[in-house]
């Protein structure tokens, strides 16, 4: 009998047809896309300083693709920049380990990629700005210096020399990284300016729409690019589109892009400067506007009022328009035609209740408790744990008001809150699991706050909220091992026990109610299995 070790390295053979089935079309397509960025090092070393042609027109024919769009240019820059950043990171790592051969080969690759990036960028800009040319020159010189120095290091075993070179290489690498970052930022800004000018100056719907799509795509590349987009005037240009009736069909698209840009402080600051809040209020309150447009405006409001931001203090004009915005948002929740529209409107409301406590008073006056509980019973509007998370966030924040309890009782809201305590993910998808945890936690928080009212405490006890809260405390799997759910449930349980002590068994009282909260928490958080 052959041992498993003897056969482990023998690949299984397959027929040509079977092998073809192993190749996924998307993977091949991705490989072909990436191939042009992964050049052969030896070839590039030979060609890097040799002109293809002295004839300018002939050279252009070989290098420039006439179909290049600004979006193509930006994607090319971003892909090449990612590769170069990766190579520089590898070089730092290899340098720390004194792996000189690897340091040199990585330096050669980085040098080739930098030259390719510079050539590519100059090919589609024809005449790059002087500031960029300055960084290009410095970057190319530093990369060549890096290649020469690292080559010297692989031809010696003198430890003293290598250690002295290590500091020099580290210094050059740092300089290369800084020059590279500056050059890429300016190149990206230069291309983004082209898109912004297209939005500002063109009267062609297709051209403007394509430019907006390109900006939206770039916002998905991360916060750093969003900052550049905001600084280059995109927020101003997009709000101009939103304010002109002739571009009404592009407004929703522009608002979606604005919501992405405003994930950074620079975007929100620009929005404030161009009276963006007033524009959003006008869009939301005009019920003749398409629902899609109002939903995208709600998304911008949700973004700029996010409690995760630490820089919302300068949104002074928001307070001036808050009542109109809140009124429009609760109406959008009430009449939403889909779960997506409801999610955007309710997310904006949830964030606003964190942003200013006056919003809770306004919502109570607008019968928000009734509207939100009605929505929870409508699967067309509230169809995911993400929507329920927004609803229960609003309820938790307005439940601090004394006169909220009577409305919750009137709308049979305790039943809905109990259902939320049973919220469970349908998949193991981490975002969905986290959303379900938030729903359970906030439902427990809302119950605890509302149970200050004896009528609420009695109703919750009568509906068997206490057994479910105990189960969540004692069974880690029921709460997806969430400590925040455990703390909220212990707090709610103690509040209900204070009003209805007879509804708690003695063993539960001794373990979950009588000890200090931290002791009960430690007891429950160490339980492996439920013993309810």
From TrEMBL:
- InterPro entries tied to this protein: ARM-like, ARM-type_fold, Armadillo, Insc_C, INSC_LBD, INSC_LBD_sf, Inscuteable
Q: Which domain of life is it from?
A: Eukaryota
Pinpoint the Protein inscuteable homologue LGN-binding domain residues.
23-68
Which Pfam families does the record match to this protein?
Insc_C (PF19427), INSC_LBD (PF16748)
Using the record's annotation, list all stretches that form the Protein inscuteable homologue C-terminal domain.
80-532
Q: What is this protein called?
A: Protein inscuteable-like protein
Q: Which organism is it from?
A: Huso huso
């Amino acid at each position: 009998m052959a041992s498993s070790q003897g056969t482990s390295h023998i690949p299984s053979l397959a027929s040509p047809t079977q092998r073809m089935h192993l190749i996924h079309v998307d993977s091949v397509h991705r490989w072909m896309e990436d191939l042009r960025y992964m050049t052969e090092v030896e070839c590039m070393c030979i060609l890097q300083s040799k002109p293809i042609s002295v004839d300018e027109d002939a050279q252009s024919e070989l290098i420039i693709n006439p179909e290049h769009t600004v979006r193509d240019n930006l994607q090319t820059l971003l892909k090449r920049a990612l590769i170069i950043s990766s190579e520089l990171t590898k070089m730092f790592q290899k340098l720390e380990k004194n792996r000189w051969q690897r340091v040199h080969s990585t330096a050669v690759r980085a040098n080739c990629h930098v030259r390719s990036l510079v050539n590519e960028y100059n090919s589609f800009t024809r005449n790059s700005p002087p500031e960029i040319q300055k960084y290009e020159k410095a970057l190319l010189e530093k990369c060549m210096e890096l290649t020469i120095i690292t080559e010297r290091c692989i031809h010696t075993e003198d430890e003293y020399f290598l250690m002295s070179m290590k500091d020099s290489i580290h210094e050059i690498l740092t300089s290369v990284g800084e020059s590279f970052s500056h050059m890429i930022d300016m190149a990206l800004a230069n291309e983004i300016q082209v898109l912004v000018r297209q939005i500002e100056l063109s009267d062609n719907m297709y051209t403007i729409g394509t430019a907006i799509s390109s900006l939206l795509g770039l916002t998905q590349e991360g916060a750093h690019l969003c900052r550049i987009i905001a600084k280059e005037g995109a927020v101003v240009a997009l709000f101009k589109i939103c304010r002109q009736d002739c571009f009404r069909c592009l407004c929703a698209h522009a608002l979606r892009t604005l919501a992405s840009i405003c994930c950074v402080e620079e975007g929100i600051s620009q929005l404030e400067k161009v009276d963006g809040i007033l524009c959003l209020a006008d869009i939301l309150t005009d019920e003749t506007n398409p629902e899609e447009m109002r939903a995208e405006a709600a998304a911008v409001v949700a973004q700029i009022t996010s409690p995760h931001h630490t820089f919302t203090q300068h949104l002074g004009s928001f307070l001036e328009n808050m009542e109109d915005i809140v009124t429009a948002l609760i109406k959008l929740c009430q009449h939403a035609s889909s779960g997506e529209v409801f999610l955007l409107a309710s997310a904006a409301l949830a964030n606003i209740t964190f942003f200013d406590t006056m919003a809770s008073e306004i919502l109570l006056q607008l019968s928000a408790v009734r509207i939100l509980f009605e929505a929870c019973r409508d699967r067309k509007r509230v169809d995911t744990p993400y929507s329920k998370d927004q609803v229960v966030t609003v309820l938790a924040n307005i439940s601090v008001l004394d006169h909220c309890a009577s409305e919750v009782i009137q709308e049979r809201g305790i039943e809905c809150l109990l259902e939320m305590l049973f919220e469970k993910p349908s998949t193991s998808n981490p975002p969905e699991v986290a959303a379900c945890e938030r729903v359970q936690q906030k439902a427990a928080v809302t119950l605890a706050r509302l149970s200050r009212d004896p009528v609420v405490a009695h109703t919750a006890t009568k509906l068997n909220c206490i057994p479910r809260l105990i189960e969540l405390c004692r069974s880690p799997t029921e709460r997806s091992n969430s400590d925040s759910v455990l703390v909220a449930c212990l707090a709610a349980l103690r509040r209900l026990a204070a009003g209805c002590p007879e509804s708690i068994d003695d063993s539960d009282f001794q373990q979950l109610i009588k000890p200090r909260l931290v002791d009960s928490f430690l007891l429950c958080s160490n339980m492996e299995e439920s013993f309810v």
